[in-house]
């Protein structure tokens, strides 16, 4: 069975948690595509070469979850050759037998425009910054500035900017519990299975 669920949205809106829950509930493979860009940013050197030669070991680094890695990721993510070098891996993953959930910024618009289900998970910048702050600790105001800067870069780049696909189901999780958001996302998937 080939079945792709594309989950896009800004930082800390709940994409990762929702994607993992969907993968577990429906027995689908899951790819966090942000990890690819984080690994390219963290590798250093020429980002285009880094993207072309990415290995499993690069994806397994412990420091990819940091704010520094996130920021570096969004800087290399504006480079079209970096995005192009990562495209085939993502498309191959999406086509694996048994179905897959991919989460990122351009899955429904560029990587898998024919995905059976497209979700766009969003939340207000304040709510997202607060969630990040709860995860990471630190000074909320700095985290908010960083989240906003990263979203701006992601939304305003020329190649594959962050935006909902025309046929995406938008879920705003600002005032929703994670359980309610997962239930809404799962209902959208179940309706297409
Ligand atoms: O999702 P995550 O926060 O790990 O993504 C880190 C950065 O990688 C994003 O801010 C974005 O710049 C980039 N990214 C992207 N396209 C994707 C996934 C992530 O440009 N599909």
UniProtKB/TrEMBL annotation:
One of its GO terms (biological process) is pyrimidine nucleotide metabolic process. This is Cytidylate kinase. Signal peptide: none annotated. Residues 5-40, 57-188 form the Cytidylate kinase domain. Its main location: cytoplasm. HAMAP family: Cytidyl_kinase_type1. It is found in: Cytoplasm. It catalyses: CMP + ATP = CDP + ADP; dCMP + ATP = dCDP + ADP. Belongs to the cytidylate kinase family. Type 1 subfamily. GO terms for cellular component: cytoplasm. ATP binds at residues 9-17. The gene is cmk. Its EC number is 2.7.4.25. It is an enzyme of class 2 (transferase). It holds the Pfam family Cytidylate_kin.
């Amino acid at each position: 069975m080939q079945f792709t669920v594309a989950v896009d949205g800004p930082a800390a809106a709940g994409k990762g948690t929702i994607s993992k829950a969907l993968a577990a509930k429906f027995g689908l493979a899951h790819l966090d595509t942000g990890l690819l860009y984080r690994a390219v940013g963290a590798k250093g050197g020429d980002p285009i070469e880094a993207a072309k030669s990415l290995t499993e070991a690069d994806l397994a680094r412990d420091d990819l979850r940091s704010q520094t890695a996130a920021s570096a990721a969004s800087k290399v993510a504006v480079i079209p050759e970096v995005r192009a070098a990562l495209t085939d891996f993502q498309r191959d993953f999406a086509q694996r037998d048994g179905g897959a959930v991919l989460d990122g910024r351009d899955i429904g618009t560029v990587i898998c425009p024919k995905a059976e289900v497209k979700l766009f998970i969003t939340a207000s910048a304040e709510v997202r910054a607060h969630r990040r702050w709860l995860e990471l600790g630190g000074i909320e105001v700095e985290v908010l500035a960083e989240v906003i800067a990263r979203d701006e870069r992601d939304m305003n780049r020329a190649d594959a900017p962050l935006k909902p696909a025309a046929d995406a189901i938008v879920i705003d999780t600002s005032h929703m519990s994670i359980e309610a958001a997962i239930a809404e996302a799962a209902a959208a998937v179940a309706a297409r299975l």
